[in-house]
Every structure is written in structure tokens, then in C-alpha cells.
Design brief:
CATH superfamily of chain A: MetI-like
Number of domains of chain A: 1
Strand content of chain A: under 5%
Number of helices of chain B: 22
CATH class of the largest domain in chain B: Alpha Beta
Largest interface: A-B, 55 and 73 residues
Oligomer: heterodimer
CATH topology of chain A: MetI-like fold
Helix content of chain B: 40-55%
Number of strands of chain A: 0
Distance between the termini of chain B: 87 Å
Largest sheet of chain A: none
Radius of gyration of chain B: 27 Å
Strand content of chain B: 5-15%
Distance between the termini of chain A: 25 Å
Structural class of chain A: mainly alpha
CATH superfamily of the largest domain in chain B: Periplasmic binding protein-like II
């Protein structure tokens, strides 16, 4: 451990300064959204709000949190995050464990199959038709079943499982354990970092998804929180072709910026609260799949 | 051995399962009855004796304020027709093409775009066939049939917002929603209430404002409607369309007044009466900010009635006044399109007869008035002397509209005139402007019908020119001298030529002459 020279201190100060500046620049826009959401809508349209709300109000939040549609959407989003993450973790790990077996026949074929699927897609319309033929449209399962195996994490999980010493498995086999017993009783408990990383990544993806809620579902009770947010944002954006603008010319009580922003904050805050605590697992988990010395 | 059997069985089962997944046909798409699962959702059997038919309606406007079939107006429509609608509002503009391509359209579609795609025998029922079969008593005006007829001779919808010249003439209180301009009343008074009768007057007033109040922005525009109010005073179209020059259909930019309009706008910029920054506003609220904060004198697209209500709420000491007269004898508002949006009865419709009955009701005077205005006697009354509906509620407030379910469902098949009559509110500033703007309406239905079809060369040319104009037009506005502005205008037209303008005009003239024969 060498002594800290002047050069060290200078570099540290400059580093810290620059990083603080970057942190401020990235965090300020979100902070701005939060203060606007707590500000009266009409007053927000006057502009000039920078550090704290000028006309503090909770009415924007009241509007959403008292709306049963929003509470329902909150429930749907939460449910799909938990169920979706659980299903994805289970099936991805199961598939990865199978593929991790070094002497697997047709291993290369399976891998090519998956990698091709990862990079290519039939497009939105064929996807829609496939979902329809599987009877998934307009059900909760359209949220969690199509994404049940994530190829990205499949590959990471395969590398991870290959790292596990084969001696562990062999000793278990000698004791008479079957493949599935080994998987559930030995492999999974050891893979906690991987599972945490996968859970977080997939969970965030599930929370943020709104396109499937928009295109593949039309039951009101199945809409997600982010879809509701999009609804509010869309409502504030009447198109500007002349015919529509004329129709909209005299409309008052239009969705104000404050309302739109409140919708955004409500949709983002829950996941934002969870993420920082799980971030270390995320980094660990991703690195786990990398090449070891 | 046992293990091998188990493994083989599992593998075979998996393979078979994969194959069956490929086979399965249409497993009940989203076209089915997608009722709401919320608590408190409307019961489906309120009609009593009449059996309520439920149909799914897809509204292809993501900003549509009414998200469901609730409120006293929809309930009344259901009572009178026996039909209840399950509403789905589009999330974006890709959703309808997806539904069309996958063949999974709901019973009804209401859209202002993708009209030609919807008006196809594979996608929707043609109304003439349905009328012949289920409702021979359904009478539609020949003009409306004419403007909605497709090349295959059928018509698939009756677009709303359309009225003939005679209908507009017969309803003197029908006001077009023409782009407006408002200005600070108190500052006008401080300048000594100068005359505002011509565009030159406007220029001079803005000059006086600039001289006396150097910190104020004389004129601020709504981001998407820059210059639109002035186009009315010059009688010009915006973005797309054609004008009749010596019998031929020429691109709207070649209108004889267009250069004058551009030079006027350019002068506004050069004299500092409008900001270059106006072209970079990020949303429709930035101009409002200037106005509400008292930093702007005149507001392009400004609606004095709504702005004044906001100023009152904010406790500001000043108020806005509407420009309520035409400022030039060249003023004109070109009319003559074929309407705005249309309701289509798709081939997936489980009850075309009921759907047609709904359309018939919404097209009737009774249905239009119910949908647009509300329940007669309760929400509005008809002023027989002046021939306009008097609203008993704040019909411009979206919260009220959503709660009552009023105004918007009326648009399913309403006429331009009925929609326009609602705007008439005696003593309101916008009404004064509307009455003045009425005088400028000019009709050329044949020309208004000339519109490019999707997937044709003409539409590609038109779209390319439109994109080009959007960016290049700004050069004219921001030119440093008048000569440069003229040169930029000439350059704009040249660029349009190089993108195939003559071909487009040739096609348009041929179409124009064809349509003229129908009128």
C-alpha cells in the first residue's frame, strides 16, 4: 500500500468531481419529473420550476391512486413481474442445465437453434398469429409464456453450470440421485447469484413491458401499469393534422404535463426502489458467465 | 433400461407436442367478446325486453378521450338502439395495420387513417350491400355516397365532418374551427387601440409593441401551427393538397398568394416580431408558457376564451382578446375534403345487421344530436329563432365530456355542420371569430377529393415532397433578406420538381377532371 501522493489526491478530486457532475446531469431530469408531479398542473405550464414544487399539491397522485383501473394495473404489473421472473428462471435454468451436459448429443444443433432464434424474428405479424394459434391472446399467460426462456441468460447459465465441479454431481449420482434431484437439490442452491441476476433483469423487463399489453390484450382488467401510463401520455398528444386540431381547438381541461409526469413517476418508482439493492447481484451474475482464468 | 424407456417416451412426447402446436388453427382471437373484468362494469342486460347486442369497437386514435362506453349519452344510445359497444382505443398507429394484416379485426373500426386499407372488400362490408339486405330504408345523401365511393363502386363508410356548400349556407351559425389569433387587450389599450383591419395594421401594431416593450415577444406561435392563422388571411392550404390554376390541379405551394405569405412571415422574423426559437419549441405548451407569463403580446393559434379562464385561475391581471375579423380580401378557407374519420363494419363482425342499425342511428339527426350535444331538454335545447343548439354544460371541458360520454361518440357519423353548430356560443370571442371565418369558406369538392392512395407512386412522391417542405420551408421564414426569401421559395419549388412534382400534378389534374364530372 503506497502513500497517497499529491498526484493521487488531484486525480481523485477531479474524478469525484466529474462523476458527481455526471450523476447530477443524469439524475436531474428524473428529479424534475418528480417535482413537477407534485406541482399544480396549471401552475406547471408557467414554467420556471427548477428545484422544488412552487404550488405543491397531491391532487395529481390522488387522481391516479384513487382510480380502480390504476390499482388493477398495479396488481397486474406486480403479478407478471413475480410470476414472469419465476417462470423464466425455472425454464431457463432447466434448459441450461440440460445443455450444460458436456456429452450431450446434438449439442451444437441445439445451440445454433437457440442462437439463431436470439438474433432473428419473424416480425410482429407472424408473432401475433403464433400467439393467436396458441390461444394466448387476451390472457394473462401472453405476458409470461412467450418469454419463458431467455436465450441471453441461457448462454450465461450454461457457462455457469459448466463451472460447477463435476465431482459434486458424480458423488450425488453414486448416492442414487436422479438428474432432476441433482438439479433441484444441488445445482440451484449453488446458483443464487445467477438466479438473482436473472430475476432482476427479467423482472425489470416484465415491469416495463407495455407493447404486449397494447397489442395482444384488450381486456381492461389485464392492462399493465406501463400501458396505463402510455394511455395518459397519448391523451396529452393530440395530433396536429389540421382536421384534428380544429376539432381540438377549444378543448379545455386537457391532460396537463403534470398529469402525464405523475403517471410516469408512478410507473417507474416501484422498480426504482427495488433495483439499487439488487444491483450488486446483477453485476456479479453477469460476470459469472464470463471466462475464468 | 427403465431409464432409457422413460427418456425415449419423454423425447417422443416433446416432439409430438411441438408438432401439434404447429397444426392448431384459429384459437379464438381477440375478436371475441372482450368484456371488462372490472368491478362495477355495466351490466349487459339493462334493456329489459330488448336484447342488448354487444359489439367491439376499435378506435384508431390513441388520444381519444373516451376510453369506454360509459356515461349517460352512451347509455341512452344503448337504450335507443339496443347496442352496447366494448371500446378499445389504439395504443399507437401500428396497431390497426397489425390487426388488418393478421385478420383479427374487431366488429367495428373507427379510424381517420388507413382509410383505403379499410375500404376493401376483404376487410369490411360494403355499406351498399348491407343496406340493400338489412335496411333499405336507410337513406344517405348522394353527395355523401359520392365522396365515400371507392374505385370498385362500393362505399364502405360515411366519413364524418363532411357537409356540402348548401348545408353550410343553410346553417348560418355553423362555425368552422379555423385557426385563431389572440392578443393582450391591456397592451392594445396602452398603444391607444390602433386599428386592426388589415395585415399591414397587424405588422405595424407588432412594430409598436416591439418598440415600446423590448423585452416582450410580439408574436409567439403554437409549435405545430406556425403561420397557420396567416394562411387563412392569404387563402392558403397547408402541408398537402392542390389548387385550381387555370383548370389544372397544381401543387398547393404554387398558389399565387403563397409567396406573399412567405414574405410576410419572413418580414415578421427579420423585424424581430417572432423568434427563431419558435421553430425549436419542444411541445405545445411552450408557447402557452410565454402567453400565461405575460411575455408575449400576440398568440398564434390562441383561443382567448380558454386562455382567459386559465389567466383568471392563475390570478394574472391581464386578459386576451381574439382577432375576430378577416384581415385581407384574399382570405379563404378551402373546404371540400371528403370528411375526417369513418366507421367501418369489418368482415369479422358477428352481427352486421346490428352494426348497420347503429350506423343508421348515429347518422340520423337524432343520433348525431344525442352523440354530439347530449340529451335534448336536459343537456341542451334548440334555439329555433337562431337555429343552433344551446348547451347547458361546459361542453369543451374534457372531464365533463368523459363523465357524460358526450361530444366524441357523436363523431361516428356526424355532419360537418352539426359539429360546427356546437361551437356557436353567443358572446364568446371564438364565436365572433368563427362567424367572420365563415365568410371565407370556399368549396371545391372535386378538388378536395383528389387524394393519393397508399402504395402508389404518387403517394410516395407526395410524401417525399411533404417531408422536404417541412424542413426547407424554415429557410424561407428565416431568410436574412427579402431577396433571399424569394430565392429560397424558388429553390423550394425546384426541389419539389426534382422529386417528381410534375408527375404528381399530371395525375392530380386527370383525377380532378374525372371528379368534376360527378358534381
Amino acid at each position: 500500500m503506497h502513500r497517497r501522493t499529491v498526484e493521487d489526491r488531484v486525480v481523485d478530486t477531479v474524478n469525484t468531481g466529474l462523476l458527481l457532475l455526471m450523476a447530477l446531469v443524469t439524475m436531474y431530469p428524473f428529479y424534475y419529473l418528480i417535482i413537477i408531479s407534485f406541482n399544480n398542473g396549471l401552475d406547471s405550464s408557467l414554467g420556471g420550476i427548477y428545484f422544488w414544487p412552487r404550488a405543491f399539491t397531491l391532487s395529481n397522485y390522488e387522481k391516479f391512486l384513487s382510480d380502480p383501473k390504476w390499482l388493477m394495473a398495479f396488481g397486474v404489473s406486480g403479478l407478471r413481474t413475480v410470476v414472469g421472473a419465476a417462470i423464466t428462471i425455472f425454464f431457463t435454468c432447466l434448459t441450461a442445465y440440460g445443455l450444460a451436459y458436456r456429452n450431450l448429443v446434438f449439442q451444437k444443433v441445439y445451440f445454433s437453434f437457440f442462437i439463431i432464434a436470439m438474433y432473428t424474428s419473424g416480425g410482429l405479424i407472424p408473432y401475433y398469429v403464433v400467439l393467436r394459434s396458441l390461444g394466448l391472446l387476451n390472457t394473462f399467460w401472453v405476458y409470461v409464456v412467450p418469454g419463458a426462456v431467455t436465450i441471453f441468460f441461457l448462454v450465461i447459465a450454461v457457462s455457469f453450470f459448466r463451472e460447477i465441479p463435476p465431482e459434486m454431481e458424480e458423488s450425488a449420482r453414486i448416492d442414487g440421485a436422479s438428474d432432476l434431484t441433482i438439479f433441484f437439490r444441488m445445482i440451484l442452491p449453488v446458483s443464487k447469484p445467477l438466479i438473482a441476476a436473472m430475476g432482476l433483469f427479467v423482472g425489470v423487463g416484465q415491469w416495463n413491458a407495455w407493447m404486449d399489453s397494447a397489442y395482444f390484450v384488450n381486456k381492461d382488467g389485464l392492462r399493465t401499469l406501463t400501458y396505463r401510463m402510455m394511455e395518459v401520455i397519448n391523451q396529452g398528444m393530440m395530433p396536429t393534422d389540421l382536421a384534428t386540431a380544429e376539432r381540438a381547438a377549444a378543448i379545455t381541461g386537457v391532460t396537463t404535463f403534470s398529469i402525464q409526469v405523475t403517471a410516469m413517476v408512478i410507473a417507474v418508482v416501484p422498480i426504482l426502489l427495488v433495483y439499487p439493492f439488487l444491483q450488486k447481484y446483477f453485476v456479479q451474475g453477469i460476470m459469472i458467465g464470463s471466462v475464468k482464468g | 433400461m427403465k431409464k432409457k424407456i422413460v427418456q425415449t417416451t419423454l423425447a417422443t412426447t416433446l416432439a409430438v407436442a411441438m408438432l401439434t402446436a404447429c397444426a392448431g388453427g384459429n384459437n379464438g382471437g381477440t375478436g371475441g367478446n372482450a368484456g371488462s373484468t372490472q368491478p362495477g362494469a355495466a351490466e349487459s342486460d339493462k334493456g329489459g325486453e330488448q336484447e342488448i347486442v354487444e359489439l367491439d369497437l376499435f378506435v384508431n386514435m390513441s388520444w381519444w378521450p373516451l376510453k369506454d362506453w360509459s356515461g349517460k349519452v352512451p347509455e341512452e344510445i344503448t337504450k335507443r338502439t339496443g347496442i352496447k359497444l366494448n371500446i378499445q382505443v389504439a395504443a399507437d398507429d401500428k396497431q390497426l395495420p397489425l390487426l388488418i394484416a393478421s385478420g383479427d379485426l374487431p366488429d367495428l373500426v373507427y379510424t381517420a387513417t388507413d382509410l383505403t386499407r379499410m375500404a376493401h372488400s376483404d376487410v369490411s362490408y360494403s355499406l351498399n350491400e348491407l343496406i340493400a339486405e338489412y335496411a333499405p330504408d336507410f337513406e344517405i345523401s348522394p353527395e355523401r355516397i359520392g365522396v365515400n365511393t371507392m374505385p370498385d363502386g362500393n362505399f364502405y363508410t360515411i366519413r364524418n365532418a363532411f357537409s356540402t356548400e348548401q348545408e353550410w349556407k343553410d346553417n348560418p351559425k355553423a362555425l368552422p374551427g379555423a385557426n385563431s389569433m389572440s392578443y393582450r387587450q391591456d397592451i392594445m389599450e396602452e398603444l391607444g387601440n390602433p386599428e386592426l383591419n388589415t395585415l399591414d395594421d397587424l405588422m405595424s401594431i407588432l412594430g409598436q409593441v416591439k418598440a415600446k416593450y423590448p423585452d416582450m415577444v410580439p408574436l409567439v406561435w403554437d409549435k405545430e401551427q406556425i403561420g397557420q392563422h396567416l394562411r387563412i388571411h392569404y387563402g392558403l392550404k397547408k402541408s398537402r393538397g392542390f389548387v385550381d390554376i387555370d383548370g389544372a390541379a397544381q401543387y398547393y405551394l404554387k398558389d399565387k398568394n403563397y409567396l406573399d405569405y412567405y414574405l410576410y412571415m419572413n418580414r415578421l422574423y427579420r423585424e424581430g416580431y417572432m423568434l427563431a426559437e419558435n421553430f425549436t419549441f419542444k411541445d405545445g405548451q411552450q408557447d402557452d408558457q410565454y402567453v400565461l407569463n405575460g411575455q408575449a403580446f400576440a398568440h398564434g393559434s390562441g383561443n382567448a376564451d380558454t386562455t382567459n379562464a386559465q389567466l383568471e385561475e392563475l390570478g394574472k391581471p391581464f386578459r386576451m382578446t381574439q382577432v375576430a375579423k378577416l384581415l385581407s380580401d384574399k382570405a379563404a378557407i378551402p373546404m371540400g375534403g371528403s370528411g375526417w374519420a369513418g366507421l367501418y363494419i369489418t368482415k369479422n363482425n358477428k352481427n352486421p345487421e346490428a352494426a348497420l342499425k347503429l350506423l343508421q342511428f348515429m347518422y340520423s339527426e337524432e343520433g348525431q344530436q344525442l352523440g354530439l350535444y347530449g340529451i335534448e331538454g336536459e343537456d341542451w335545447t334548440w334555439n329555433e329563432a337562431e337555429k343552433y343548439p344551446v348547451m347547458n354544460y361546459d361542453f369543451n371541458n374534457t372531464d365533463v365530456q368523459t363523465q357524460m360520454g358526450v361530444v366524441w361518440w357523436g363523431l361516428l357519423a356526424s355532419s360537418g355542420v352539426n359539429e360546427a353548430l356546437q361551437r356557436f356560443v353567443p358572446d364568446s370571442q371564438m364565436t365572433k371569430w368563427g362567424l367572420a371565418a365563415r365568410e371565407a369558406l370556399v368549396f371545391n369538392p372535386a378538388l378536395g377529393l383528389v387524394s393519393t392512395e397508399p402504395d402508389t407512386e404518387e403517394q410516395t412522391i407526395e410524401a417525399q415532397i411533404e417531408n422536404m417542405v417541412k424542413t426547407e420551408e424554415v429557410r424561407i421564414y428565416l431568410a436574412a433578406t427579402e431577396e433571399e426569401a424569394r430565392a429560397q421559395y424558388a429553390a423550394l419549388l425546384e426541389k419539389a420538381e426534382s422529386l417528381g412534382l410534375s408527375k404528381l400534378e399530371e395525375w392530380a389534374t386527370a383525377k380532378y377532371k374525372e371528379y368534376q364530372q360527378n358534381f
